[in-house]
Design a protein that fits this description.
Shape: globular
Largest sheet: 8 strands, mixed
Number of helices: 11
Low-confidence stretches: none
Radius of gyration: 20 Å
Mean pLDDT: 90
Strand order of the largest sheet: 6-7-8-3-9-10-12-11
Strand content: 15-25%
Number of domains: 1
Number of strands: 12
Distance between the termini: 31 Å
Helix content: 25-40%
Oligomer: single chain
Amino acid sequence: MTVLGLRDIHRRFESGGQIARAVDGVDLVLSTGEIVGLVGESGCGKTTLSRIAVGLDQPDEGAVWLDDQPLLGSDGSVARSQRRRIQLVFQDAYGSFNPRRTIGDAVAMPLSRHGELQGDGRRQVAALLEQVGLEPELMDRHPHRLSGGQLQRASIARALALDPDILVCDEPVASLDVSVRAQILNLLMDLWRDRGLGILFVSHDLGVVRRIASRVAVMYLGRIVESGDNESIWASPRHPYTRSLAASNPSATGRWRESRDRSLLQGEPPSPFEIPPGCRFHPRCPIVVDRCRTEDPALRVVPPEIEVACHLAE
């Protein structure tokens, strides 16, 4: 059963008379109890897409659906009944909290806004903090008195307050130390198993996505260039960009480590203000041919059931 659907999403930004195509025709679905990893370099449009998925930003074209009901109403706002079903966990946990309010106030706010706060809410907040591995006593502290890992746990507790069906996690471990990163990933996996959550996990790290996702979508310069089952993507990626991400990962083994020299990404991604003609990856592609420079490849299915936008996928 599909819970979340993003259909033909386009998002453009204007600056200095130029148009940047941050998201350029993306389709993505997330089913009940599924973890989908959305991976790509910084600037590829992942964060913009995640904000659109939860209704914090509006697409210029396309629509977001929850169980075949539009996320946004006719006035562009998220309906209250839909808002509680999908919640965002931010990358910058500290920046997502009001420094003047306590952690308890922040975690209780969604309950208060939806009329579900019982008394002063301390018992509800304590239960939520315990679910994410925090001592209830931390609810009286302000954000600056918590570590980065504790703040991200508190951010997850706040996202869980309304018992959502879906969490959209935008680089939730990118700014954390390695040991703390593993703890947060384990917490998300536990919540996924215990609550049956659907999770859209956004990351630039294919290795992290490999660990937790059931499906993977690889994004480059505003578009999905490859998607499929997690193990199939990792074992036999068909797009040269995905192969480069695999070879660049510290956990790469076997042929990805052996092919590291010829697979590593060269140069920087083009500007979304100046997207190249043809395949948008061709200026950095190690196997580019003339066709790639003029013809934009469409997503198509190649064995084993991987969708890929590459003329040379076979």
